[in-house]
Specification:
The complex is a heterodimer of chains A (113) and B (114). Chain A contains no helices and 11 strands. With 113 residues, chain A is mostly beta strands. In chain A, strands 2, 4, 5, 6, 9, 10 and 11 form a 7-stranded mixed β-sheet that branches. A 4-stranded antiparallel β-sheet of chain A has the order 1-3-8-7, with no helix packed on it. Classes of the chains: A mainly beta (113), B mainly beta (114).
Amino acid sequence: SAVISQKPSRDICQRGTSLTIQCQVDSQVTMMFWYRQQPGQSLTLIATANQGSEATYESGFVIDKFPISRPNLTFSTLTVSNMSPEDSSIYLCSVVLGSDEQFFGPGTRLTVL
Amino acid sequence: DQQVKQNSPSLSVQEGRISILNCDYTNSMFDYFLWYKKYPAEGPTFLISISSIKDKNEDGRFTVFLNKSAKHLSLHIVPSQPGDSAVYFCAASERVGGADGLTFGKGTHLIIQP
């Protein structure tokens, strides 16, 4: 497995502001994903973070709201823009290693007031 | 519409007995299924997976059974231990391996009673 870290681990933000979440892996990985888990809900895939090209977004998620960067094979960021209370969730990054299973970071707990 | 369903939000089992967690899916294109375990304030941890060409996969105390015709899978934990208390998520993908994003159920909170 790999060591996956996320920063910040939690934050409380005001509506209308933006927050950038970082995901760092201790080894190079080909696939990285971003998920969110709203209270009482399942994990939902936001997008696939592609290295060197634009992220691939799932239905219901758009780049203007959730811009993603992937500058190299070990790092990615997800920004939650113009936040509202409905964006209060746990945001998780995941990576695929040689065994093909997805491994998850510890998550970022976001509360929007 | 939920494509992966875990209909039991919680399950309480006596230590040493068998825990059976169930999962149903609706998308017939799903070909690969995984179970994850999640403790509070941590990310999900991969437990075990199964591809649609198999009907059973075993790893120590954990066994996953797949009934493709019924679109149903289950995770058996035997014997159950206190450290197994966690939320268990069922997940599915249309491709074997992790190249696709996963579709998750809402989870089942397993409580192991001493």
